[in-house]
């Protein structure tokens, strides 16, 4: 039995849920204590009788008080309240309370219905979307799973486009970037697991491969192994099960059971080899590969660089680019990484500006990759179909004090930085960059 639990509820560690007791202002509390929905102040003798409009705050408090600790009554009362006050100021809180109460009653359709009504009001609420995903995934029918995939896609898109300017002040840049990376890994795994549940194996494999490329993780490897096993292909399942067995369980979104993986690995190995002979050696080889030093961990050749033009940057084909050959030209640099969502949105715009200067011998554009594992870069470029000039940072990012991504820098013909923009700017990125390039002056002689 597969003991790996994959659910939306586990993606975000601190998923916000509202208490069923909805806090009300002191005014409403006082009114609720002094009156019931039907209570009115008797009119003075001779005065015309006026039927006051019911106060939504008082009516809400009455709905809560009359339900007490009875969750069935709470759901009934709050639904009736929303019928009477569909535009109530606290309807968001009411829907949250309904979602939680329905979950406590194990009434998934009720929870899903109210959660989706809440999403219609607050389409940016990622937390409630994940609640819906978890509920839909448990439903298990194809229509529910398709809706779940749609919600995960919306949340993932939001995470990948979140600019660094949204980073909380109390969180360091490194911690924020690592947190964003883990979220992307988790969401790709989650969507892949749902697609696998749908038997949409091609889409699932693509998402799980993306998760693994962002950060090698046991969950993605295990799910890919299960896909191959489900397709009666034990030979291709073996390497993924080996990776799942030896890789650390380093994601917060899901956990894996080593004993379960060991059983799966033994089963497919015996199907292919007839016995478990050689499995131990294969596990050792897989472990050694998982802890190997990255290919780009060698000492940088730019360690002693004291000037921009001292840098020789490695390129994807193994050759090196000497910036000294660009002395006297304007240089435009874009620093990026494969795991950086905003970079993926900005780079095509950067490339578009670069293309507008094609044929201008006085300016050079270069995208500088700063991934720690350079082996991820080539597959990423193929998938994204990027074909503009790219080199690895190899210390240039530290030299120029690049501490956030994406960062775009313009250097004038004398080697002076005249423009620097960190993060994903608004729609005027191209105009600002164009203006900075023009201010950098003409080509050097």
Helices and strands, with pairings:
Blueprint: H1 26-34, H2 56-67, H3 71-84, H4 91-104, H5 108-121, H6 126-139, H7 142-160, H8 173-197, H9 201-214, H10 218-230, H11 234-246, H12 258-273, H13 279-290, E1 312-314, E2 320-322, E3 330-336, H14 341-356, E4 363-369, H15 377-384, E5 390-392, H16 396-399, E6 407-411, E7 417-422, H17 429-439
Parallel strand pairs: 3-4, 4-5
Antiparallel strand pairs: 1-2, 3-6, 6-7
Helix pairs in contact: 1-2, 2-3, 3-4, 4-5, 5-6, 6-7, 7-8, 8-9, 8-10, 9-10, 10-11, 11-12, 11-13
Q: What is the N-to-C succession of helices and strands? A: HHHHHHHHHHHHHEEEHEHEHEEH
* Unreliably modeled segments: 1-41, 293-298
Helix content: 40-55%
Helix/strand structural class: alpha/beta
SS summary, helix count: 17
CATH homologous superfamily title of the largest domain: Tetratricopeptide repeat domain
Strand order of the largest sheet: 5-4-3-6-7
Name given to the CATH architecture of the largest domain: Alpha Horseshoe
Mean pLDDT figure: 82
Shape: flat
Task: Kindly give the count of domains.
Answer: 3
The total of beta strands comes to 7
The largest sheet, given as strand count, sense and whether it forms a barrel, is: 5 strands, mixed
Radius of gyration from CA coordinates: 29 Å
Gap between N and C termini = 72 Å
The name of the CATH topology of the largest domain is: Serine Threonine Protein Phosphatase 5, Tetratricopeptide repeat
Tell me the β content.
5-15%
CATH class category name of the largest domain? Mainly Alpha
Oligomer: single chain
């Amino acid at each position: 039995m597969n003991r790996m639990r994959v659910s939306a509820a586990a993606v975000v560690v601190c998923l916000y849920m509202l208490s069923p007791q909805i806090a009300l202002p002191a005014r409403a509390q006082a009114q609720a204590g002094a009156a019931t929905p039907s209570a009115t102040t008797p009119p003075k003798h001779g005065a015309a009788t006026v039927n006051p409009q019911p106060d939504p705050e008082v009516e809400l408090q009455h709905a809560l008080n009359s339900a007490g600790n009875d969750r069935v009554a709470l759901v009934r009362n709050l639904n009736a309240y929303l019928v009477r006050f569909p535009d109530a100021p606290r309807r968001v809180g009411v829907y949250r309370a309904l979602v939680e109460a329905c979950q406590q009653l194990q009434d998934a359709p009720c929870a899903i219905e109210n959660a989706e009504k809440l999403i219609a009001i607050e389409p940016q609420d990622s937390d409630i979307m994940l609640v819906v995903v978890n509920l839909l995934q448990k439903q298990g029918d194809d229509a529910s799973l398709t809706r779940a995939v749609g919600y995960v896609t919306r949340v993932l898109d939001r995470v990948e486009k979140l600019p660094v300017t949204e980073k909380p002040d109390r969180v360091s840049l490194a911690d924020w970037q690592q947190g964003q990376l883990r979220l992307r890994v988790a969401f790709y795994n989650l969507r892949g697991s749902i697609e696998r549940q749908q038997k949409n194996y091609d889409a699932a494999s693509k998402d799980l491969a993306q998760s693994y490329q962002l950060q090698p993780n046991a969950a993605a490897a295990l799910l890919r192994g299960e896909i191959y096993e489900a397709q009666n292909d034990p030979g291709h399942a073996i390497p993924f099960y080996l990776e799942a067995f030896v890789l650390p369980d380093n994601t917060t979104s899901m956990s894996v059971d080593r004993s379960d993986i060991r059983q799966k690995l033994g089963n497919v190995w015996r199907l292919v080899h007839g016995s478990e002979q050689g499995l131990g050696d294969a596990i050792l080889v897989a472990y050694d590969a998982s802890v190997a030093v990255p290919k780009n961990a060698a000492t940088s050749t730019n360690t002693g660089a004291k000037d921009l033009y001292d840098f020789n940057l490695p390129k994807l084909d193994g050759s090196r680019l000497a910036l000294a050959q660009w002395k006297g030209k304007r240089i435009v640099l874009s620093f990026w990484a494969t795991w950086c969502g905003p970079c993926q949105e900005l780079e095509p715009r950067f490339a578009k500006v670069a293309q507008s200067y094609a044929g201008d011998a006085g300016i050079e554009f270069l995208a500088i990759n700063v991934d720690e594992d350079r082996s991820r870069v080539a597959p990423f470029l193929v998938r994204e179909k990027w074909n503009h000039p790219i080199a690895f940072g190899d210390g240039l990012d530290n030299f120029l004090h690049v501490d956030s991504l994406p960062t775009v820098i313009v250097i004038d013909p004398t080697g002076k930085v005249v423009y620097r923009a960190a993060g994903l700017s608004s729609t005027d990125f191209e105009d600002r960059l164009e203006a900075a390039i023009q201010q950098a002056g003409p080509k050097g002689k």
